[in-house]
Design brief:
This protein is mostly beta strands. The strands form 18 sheets. Strands 51, 52, 53, 54 and 55 form a 5-stranded antiparallel sheet that branches. A 4-stranded antiparallel sheet has the order 1-30-29-28. It has a 4-stranded antiparallel sheet with strand order 2-3-4-5.
């Protein structure tokens, strides 16, 4: 994490504000150079006549240590101000003068701000600027926001109302903010006009921010501050017959001092026809997702709808980027793409501060861009890392639009910060400077420190939508890779040629005008759509347009206030690819009227008028038939919280809290399956009996109380002593504060009296005690008795070292002895096992043992010549190393062979690994203190670097402090250079070559090959899966679940899985079924899925079992 609070703490008496980070090398995400001309052409000021530059000169009174938002930049507004059919541009300048450019055609512009009377006040501090037709006269007006730690009269927002054109076609404006009641003097970032109450006129939301940094670690004080009105808080104004009245608190909008608003987006998030509000807040202040309650109030529902958010949340946008008809949310942050800037800017994890902020209700915040894809019920799954858009450095504006006219919305991001004041070396320099000055700092001292800040050369980013939930970085290929410090941006078809051009506001360099050359390059077709609303809402803000063409669906909402401090064109642009005709188009106007058009030609501008729309009849709602219907939910006690990283800071994934001990079996002998549910550490397991009506009743479970300290990591039912009743084996695991040999890590065997009453057999098992990751029952010596395979998860505190696996042989009476050396001497060397299974892979009548685990390969063992021997390479071309969590074996394609479904980390992570660029875990007790030091490294832009920050690594291996004296010296250290060859002697390395949850199928050469699964499988780590016919078509499907509750703060928690259902066609091909089809909606961490008679049982959070009824299967 970046320690942006340190700067404010050091200069607590100085004026401050907030925002964040910097640097990165010129975007390179596997960019390829080609001979194709770039999509965009940067036009020179001499070509366009646009010479505007947002000039900022650092002085004694004006520098980033006096005002922390100094480099946040200005905005851009675009629209047709003089009604000539060409869209004009207005730039806001923080200090220097605003400029208005009238479009003369052919991408040439004329500056007329002064002549138009829309210059704005001279001097600081102008921020966002937007266009709006505030009075419904079909002429665009200008609303200019002001901020800064200034007297209120110098930061009063201005409204320039369009009075019409003069004889030369120049629009004239009159400043009338006071007349309309919106002369807010709060420190404003930007504004958004929308009809929040659907009464036909436009209301106003103003995004504000505190000009001072608040140092507060008190949870109770935070709750008080959040309720108190403050000038820094955002404002909501209701339009009452042309006069605006503030109703912020009445509407339920937080307007507290804990406001550092940088981004605001308006959209109908929950698809109820009413506009909702997303607010992005800087620092650790929470983002807000205000859902319109349709009664004049809003309710913040971000905790219920989003699993986590950006930390330093900046600009944002809401749009349907995946063409499923639902709005998705994108927020920007500050995580660099390149390793060097990551290492220069990132501080070590601070779990205490993180947990404090969570306890304040500030949500789980992580420093990276977030792409929240709509799951269909108003909740979201965050997939920014999988999509390839999470790391764009110090970013400001994000704009979704179809720039290449292929029918998919691409993503443009502005980037840059003039001074790298979060550079860790600079922060240490500044700390020393302050200390040596004795706390007596002069303004000259501050300016001197500013001049010593490193500068960064950053470029903007543009990503092409791949149409499969991912994006490709096209920054170089599309001609956007020009170094600048950019802020506000807008898009518009400035030359009316059918593609979207880009306008960017830059600090200390001319504004960028990028001409889009898609049309010249004979790219895709398009439709431009102008909406004419009835009444005062002249541009029909809040309307939703759906276009259907050649089987594809696109949706746009009419809301020009997007990105950062800016407003885009109100002409809606649809790229259509090769489609020659639009099959149909529907406009849902604010208030519910509908316009429908059919067989529309492409490559035109079409105007639609609300007055010609018809009233819509509410569609008859019918309850959808879903595959899974929740029957009941059982809850048990939850175990204790424990942070494994506080025991071993360089751990990759948490070990504790991942118990999967759930068994569905007939313990009472009545023909109905009963249920055993394990528990976490400091909680006790439970037994439920199933009644004849299918309900579950908790039974006396006191026998398990003695082992409450243990985490029940796995469990299995089998007849251990041959009396005809199912007994119960419960494994103990987790890391916690346990050590090998302790009682809390001892596995247990409970004997059943035939009636479901259990007794712990203290003498049944060998005395060895270690964290168990997996247990399986099989006849391992082929004597007819069920034996045990027990796999160790980890040596606690010694990641990635494990104690391997054991074979415990049954004497036929339920007494087990260790026969590992005799039957499988090599399995003691296995890695950190998480799951295992048996299946006859070679169809010789004897089962193979398949095992997998974290940072180890999938391995296969066959019984040959009296022992279990590894035969992996008889079945795989190479060893598949992954962060494997789960194993399911089944014949999904019906060919008579067993396939392997292996749950892995997934690709929605900062960690990257492949066969050509494998990740590495280097481990050894480098400093000889008795603890294993483990370092993860993975490839970033073609080189493998350590994942951990300098301070984290130096905190584990003290002798490295002399080698890496500052962050700069560490910032380019490769994994191979971290230690000398001599220091690496005796170390081990594990190379990870696969992160995808994988479906392995036998190929023609009888080897297993990975077959691609739908991308939703990779949203989150998979810890549980099951083969079951979900939709009753007779084919086996896949049900998968996972997530983690916490992780290293740099990686964050993984929570994007809400349960995945993949429908099989019986031939080994699968399609993802959405939640509206499946009825599955899992939140939390799934650790076990079991299929029973017409039931599906899912174990979550070591405390909950969801039980679903299944549709009848054709195979039943």
């Amino acid at each position: 994490m970046i320690n942006r609070k340190l700067l404010s703490a050091l200069l607590i008496s100085m004026v401050a504000i907030s925002c964040s980070e910097s640097d990165k090398k010129a975007n390179t995400e596997a960019l390829s150079e080609s001979n194709t001309p770039p999509l965009f052409n940067l036009l020179a000021p001499e070509q366009t006549g646009i010479t505007f530059s947002n000039k900022i000169e650092e002085t004694l009174n004006l520098n980033v240590l006096m005002y922390e938002y100094l480099y946040n930049g200005g905005g851009v507004a675009v629209g047709d101000l003089n009604g000539d059919g060409l869209e004009d541009i207005y730039f806001s300048a923080n200090v220097s003068g605003n400029q208005l450019y009238l479009n003369q055609g052919d991408l040439k512009f004329k500056e007329t701000a002064q002549a138009s009377g829309a210059m704005g006040r001279s001097g600081p501090w102008k921020t966002g600027v937007v266009f709006v037709d505030i009075n419904g006269d079909k002429k665009l007006d200008i609303y200019q926001c002001y901020s800064g730690n200034l007297p209120t009269e110098k930061r009063t927002n201005q409204l320039f109302v369009n009075q019409g054109n003069d004889e030369n076609g120049i629009p004239l404006f009159k400043e009338m903010a006071e007349d309309y009641g919106i002369a807010s003097n709060a420190p404003s970032t930007s504004a958004s006009f929308f009809d929040y109450d659907l009464d036909g006129d436009l209301d106003l939301f103003i995004l504000n921010h505190n000009t001072k940094s608040i140092q507060n670690q008190d949870v109770n004080l935070t709750k008080v501050l959040l309720k108190e009105k403050h000038e820094a808080g955002s404002q909501l104004f209701e339009n009452r017959d042309g006069k605006f009245v503030e109703i912020t608190q009445k509407a339920g909008i937080s307007s507290s001092s804990l406001s550092y608003g940088l981004g605001v987006a308006i959209s109908d998030i929950n698809q109820d026809g009413w506009p909702d509000i997303y607010i992005g807040n800087d620092y650790s202040m929470p983002d807000y997702l205000y859902i319109n309650q349709k009664d004049g109030t809003f309710k913040d529902e971000i905790l219920a709808r989003l699993g986590h958010t950006s930390h330093f949340s900046m600009g944002n946008d809401i749009a349907d980027f995946n063409n499923d008809g639902l709005p998705d949310i994108f927020t920007l942050d500050m995580l660099p793409e390149g390793n060097e800037r990551q290492k220069l800017l990132l501080a070590p994890d601070n779990f205490e501060l993180f947990e404090l902020n969570v306890s304040k209700g500030f949500h789980h915040q992580y420093m990276r861009n977030m792409l929240h894809v709509n799951s269909g019920d108003g909740t979201f799954q965050e997939i920014g890392q999988l999509a390839g858009v999470s790391n764009t450095d110090w970013s400001w504006s994000s704009l979704f639009a179809d720039f290449d006219n292929d029918g998919w919305k691409d993503l443009f991001i502005t980037n840059g910060y003039l001074r790298d004041y979060n550079n860790q070396d600079f922060l240490k320099y500044m700390d020393n400077y302050v200390r040596t000055s004795g706390g007596k700092l002069k303004r000259e001292d501050l300016l001197n420190m500013v001049k010593n800040m490193p500068s960064s050369n950053l470029t903007n980013y543009i990503f092409q939508n791949s149409g499969n939930l991912t994006f490709q970085n096209q920054t170089i290929a599309w001609g956007i890779s020009h170094v600048a410090n950019s802020s506000g941006a807008a898009y518009s078809d400035l030359d009316n040629d059918g593609d979207l051009d880009l306008i960017v506001n830059n600090i200390n360099s001319p504004a960028s005008i990028y001409e889009n050359q898609t049309t010249q390059q004979k790219g895709g077709n398009y439709l431009n759509l102008k909406l004419s609303g009835s009444g005062i809402n002249a541009s029909a803000f809040g309307a939703k347009v759906t276009v259907y063409a050649e089987g594809a669906t696109q949706v746009l909402e009419q809301n020009p206030y997007r990105g950062y401090q800016s407003s885009v064109s109100t002409t809606l642009h649809f790229g259509l690819g090769n489609a020659k005709e639009i099959d149909s188009l529907q406009v849902t106007w604010p208030g519910g009227k509908i316009t429908k058009k059919y067989s529309i030609s492409t490559n035109q501008t079409l105007e639609l008028i609300e007055d010609e729309a018809v009233k819509s009849s509410a569609p008859k709602s019918k309850s959808p038939v879903v595959f899974l219907t929740e029957k009941t939910k059982l809850t048990t006690d939850m175990g204790r919280e424990f942070n494994d990283y506080k025991r071993q800071p360089l751990l990759i994934n948490p070990v504790s809290g991942n118990g999967k001990a759930m068994v569905f079996a007939d313990f009472t002998g009545d023909g109905r399956e009963d249920l055993f549910v394990g528990a976490g550490s400091n909680a006790s397991a439970s037994i439920y009996s199933q009644n004849s009506n299918g309900s579950f009743v908790k039974q006396n479970s006191s026998v398990f109380a003695a082992a409450a300290k243990s985490e029940d990591s796995d469990a299995i039912a089998f007849d251990a002593n041959g009396d005809g009743s199912l007994d119960l084996y419960v494994a103990s695991g987790g890391m916690y504060d346990f050590n090998v040999g302790e009682e809390a890590l001892r596995d247990r065997l409970y004997l059943n009296d035939g009636k479901g009453n259990f007794t712990l057999d203290l003498e049944a098992l060998p005395s060895e005690a270690f964290p168990t990751g997996t247990v399986q029952v099989a006849d391992l010596n082929f004597d007819g008795n069920p034996d045990l395979f027990v796999g160790a998860r980890i040596d606690p505190g010694q990641f990635p070292i494990s104690l391997g696996a054991r074979i415990w042989i049954n004497d036929g009476k339920g007494k087990f002895t260790d026969h590992t050396k005799q039957l499988a001497p090599t399995i003691v060397n296995l890695g950190m096992l998480t799951d295992s299974g048996f299946a006859d892979l070679d169809q010789d009548g004897k089962p193979e043992l398949i095992v997998l685990g974290e940072a180890m390969p999938i391995q296969i063992f066959s019984f040959q010549n009296g022992t279990w021997q590894e035969t992996t390479l008889n079945y795989f071309e190479k060893h598949e190393f992954g962060f494997w969590n789960n194993l399911t074996l089944a014949d999904w394609d019906g060919d008579g062979n067993v396939e392997i479904l292996a749950g892995n980390l997934g690709t929605n992570s900062q960690i990257k690994a492949s066969s050509t660029e494998p990740a590495e875990i280097l481990y050894k007790d480098f400093d000889k203190n008795g603890s294993t030091d483990a370092f993860l490294g993975y490839y970033v832009q073609g080189e493998r670097y350590p994942a951990a920050s300098r301070d984290e690594i130096l905190g584990q291996v003290l002798f490295l402090k002399k080698r890496y004296l500052d962050f700069k010296s560490f910032s380019n250290v490769k994994m191979s250079e971290l230690f000398t060859a001599e220091e690496r002697q005796g170390s081990g390395s594990i190379y990870i070559n696969r992160l995808e949850t994988s479906y392995f199928v036998r190929s023609e050469n009888r080897k297993y090959e990975a077959k691609e699964l739908p991308i939703q499988t990779q949203f989150s780590p998979v810890f549980a899966s099951e083969a079951v016919d979900v939709n009753g078509d007779g084919n086996l499907d896949m049900v998968l679940g996972g997530n983690t509750r916490y992780g290293k703060l740099y990686f964050g928690k993984y929570d994007a899985s809400q349960g995945v259902v993949l429908l099989g066609n019986g031939k080994g091909q699968f399609t993802n079924a959405n939640k509206s089809q499946t009825g599955l909606n899992l939140t939390g961490t799934t650790r076990k899925i079991i299929v029973g008679k017409s039931l599906l049982l899912i174990y979550l959070d070591e405390s909950t079992v969801n039980i679903y009824s299944l549709l009848p299967s054709k195979t039943d």
